Amino acid sequence: MARRPLPRILSKDSAQIARTQIARSRELARTAADSATDVLHPLITISRGLRRLASAGRRRFAETPKDKRGPLLFLAASVVLFVALVPYGPLLAAITLMAAAAWQGRDRTPSAPDGPDETQSERLQSLYEALVPYFSTAEDPAPLYAHGGEWEKAFDTHEFDDGGRLGHLVIRYPAYFPDGEPVARARIEQLLSAKAGRGREYHFEWDEAGNRLTVTVLAPLPTDIAAQRFVTAPGETVLGFTDPSEVQRTLPLSYGEEQRDVPPVVWRTGIRSTEPHLLAMGHPGSGTSTLLRSIALQALQYGDVLIVDGGGTGEYACLIGRDGVLAVECAPAGALASLEWAAQETERRLIAINRARQAGDPPPEDTRRPLWILLDRPTVFTHLTAADGRKDPQALLQMPLRHGRAANVTVVVTEQFDSADALSEGVRQHTRARVVLGPAAPAQVQAVLGVPAHTTSPAQVPPGRGYARLGSGPVHRLQVPSTPDPYDDATTDADRQAVLELLPPRTTPVEAEALATGAVAAESS
Q1: Of 382, 492, 501, 522, which is most buried by a Cβ count within 10 Å?
Q2: Would you say 438 is a known binding-site residue?
């Protein structure tokens, strides 16, 4: 029986010939497909147009009320009958339908430009030339930045807004640039904010490992958020609102009849808080009093509030005699008496909690209720008491500041920049939550927060606009909710009503509160 011959193994030449034939077959198939697409393109366009016209007709018929569909069908049938009876009517109708289908079936996708236009290229080249003195050195053999160089090598990504200004830019810089020095960073950030367009807020993100600087234009924070009940847990206080990319939480807020989700800056207080006390700095009219009123209204939901107003402007008169408001002091004698009581109350709470723990019992109920000590411009009392030879009220804050977290006591201090030197060392040391409001200089922001802000301030700073930093966390842009004095004539009716609705009921008449405050002040003096 004869054996069948074994198949011959392909040689290198035969394998190369087979691969060439396969590549030619693929190329022929691709060419045939492209040719068929070109030939059938009019038919494809008309078919797409007919489909769109049919969809539009069905949608129009579905949107028509049921009582008007009968007359609409009668009108369509009349038109069809008229076209059928007119000489050459069906032919003209078919031509018109094909033309309409061709127009509706055209490709409506606009072709994206390959690159920036002439004006945008000039802007990028100008920005590139401005960065040359900062990102170049004579010893560099292959400089990335050089006069007359190409900006395409230095800018990885660039985007422009509708107004023709830069909206996003990723800049490459040489590895020898000292990006770890704040002074060098500040020079570049100031240059970019000026060249990219003044009057806007920019966020600068430095990537030291990859030698990249990302510049992003920030949207303005909303300034029309009125005071309202925020959806928070006990021990959480909303300082304001920030950018969506900075926090992973949003709060549902009401804008009149609308509802929006806005990212908040939440400050957590209480026994487990790492930043139990807060210091807010600003210039006159920056919104520090607004922040203090907002904190007071939120604190009154779960605790008691003691207010010491060193400004003496009466901006907290709406809180006098309210349920949970222990006192609103504007005189030095009353401030000293109230702060002495706060120090003794903190000590009493510590002793009661310690005794309960030694006995194996839970803390007493009166020590669980939070106590808030709010001080607006306490350095004014420092000067007045020093002139009278009395004790500095800030010295009485040592006990609440040092042991307030264990006793469920929170201290909030607001002060102006021109009196920052008069703040005591205890206030500076124990207030790890910091807020800066108003048009503050970068050096002032860094002095209060401990680190510089990575964003520029707007040209016109609205009240309550600034920065916040909780402990060693990042710096957030901040917009305090509008919480004006409801007794101020300049307050709008909407804002006044919003604040009045949040105030607790009045349990003590204002006259009795004033008499009691005067009696305490007289006894202290």
Answers
A1: 382
A2: no
Establish whether 338 is an annotated binding residue: no
In a domain, 439, yes or no: yes
Q: Where are the alpha helices (DSSP H) in 154-287?
A: 182-195
Residue 95 domain flag:
no
Residue 379: give its domain's CATH number. 3.40.50.300
Higher pLDDT: 28 or 245? It is 245
Residue 466 assigned to a binding site: no
285 is in an annotated binding site: yes
The verdict on 330 and 303 lying in the same domain is yes
Does 442 belong to an annotated binding site? no
Host domain of residue 142:
118-218
For residue range 181-230, list pLDDT tens digits in order.
888 998 999 899 888 877 788 999 999 999 999 999 888 898 888 899 99
Q: Are residues 214 and 241 in the same domain?
A: no
Residue 47: inside a domain: no
State whether 276 and 350 are in the same domain: yes
Residue 242 belongs to some domain of the structure: yes
Residue 394, judged by CB atoms within 10 A of its CB (0-12, 13-18, 19+), counts as buried
Q: Is 289 annotated as a binding residue?
A: yes
> How buried is 336 (Cβ within 10 angstroms: 0-12 exposed, 13-18 middle, 19+ buried)?
buried
Chain Cα centroid distance, residue 72: 53
Q: 């009278």: which residue's tokens?
A: 388
- Predicted TM-score of the model (pTM): 0.73
